[in-house]
Amino acid sequence: MPSGNDEQQRILRARAAALARVPEESGAEGDRIEIVEFSLASERYAIESAYIGAVHPLKELTPLPCTPSFVLGVINLRGQILSIIDLREFFDLPERGVSGLSKVIVLRSDSMEFGLLADAVIEARWIPRSTLRPALPTLTDVREEYLLGVTQERLVVLDGGRILSDRGFVVHEEV
Question: Would you place residue 47 in the very low, low, confident or very high pLDDT band (cuts 50, 70, 90)?
């Protein structure tokens, strides 16, 4: 019969082995995407983190005249002037107004960079790409061409690449 100390050591080794085990993946690595989840107009949205450069609190927004209604203005972010886009206005979502808790999610690509207004940034996490489904017309007002998909828990995942490459976000108006 093993002593109490031997039994303890056996239990501890078994626990250590269980904790050290690498979890099995549910599918290939390419099947998962890392997203940053945020709230906007009382709904949950996400964008693939590969398109996100940074997240900052919204401070000192300067409105710009002669711009479309979805352009809130510009901010100075570490010496760089960055346009701020309000997706609520762009997607015709209910407006809540800009609060002191608003965040700016900086979207970046090789050719474009701007900030998206968010009510709050919730978390960054991985989701299986296979869980994304096309949106039902009654589920969201977001234009379908900007959707990567919708998860079962009604998280609307936006296509960051499509948003960054859309020339509709470029303002060409002159005074």
Answer: very high
